[in-house]
Amino acid sequence: MYEHYRYHSGAIQRASDGISSSPYGVIEDMLEDVLFLGAVALHLKDAVPYSAGWVADHQDTILADRDNGYSFAEVVPRAQTLAAAKEWMSQFCAAVYPEEDNPKDRLLEFGEALEELSFSGAFEVDFVAHAFLLTEPAWRAQMLINLAAVE
CB count, 10 Å around CB of 38? Predict the structure, then answer.
């Protein structure tokens, strides 16, 4: 898998020496996790403002994907999809309840359909928010379910 990466033994030894002489000590598993998370953050820097903070907030999900057998090449797109879905949901909440401090609380009953819509990317957030606001409150859940089923 890593045939194209060839490191000189001196480089490997310097890295090993650096790790072992760290003034605070290094737990190798922790170093592996932090390097993995740092690499994910690097790949998300154009997709998420302050990607390191976003990765820190979602590290349990990212590391669980890795530990469940997903390769780095698979984890990064999954993280990008999660980031896009979270941004879609934030924009939807802001569009639907702009005056609310915590609009997600008012949208709990629509959670599953909104989650499907946010991950699918099938509809622009402005379209869904506009349709939501124009729909009678009693029919909003069904409207979102119908939209989610379109994909």
Answer: 13
Separation of alpha carbons 53 and 51, rounded Å = 5
* pTM of the complete model: 0.75
Output the pLDDT for position 30.
80
Angstrom distances, CA of residue 51 to CA of 18, 60, 79, 84: 27, 15, 11, 12
> How far apart are alpha carbons 62 and 71 in whole angstroms?
11
CA distances from 145 to 20, 33, 47, 95, 113 (A): 55, 38, 28, 19, 5
Gap between the Cα atoms of 104 and 100, Å rounded: 9
Q: Hunting for tokens 């999954």 — which residue is that? A: 78
pLDDT at residue 124 in the model: 93
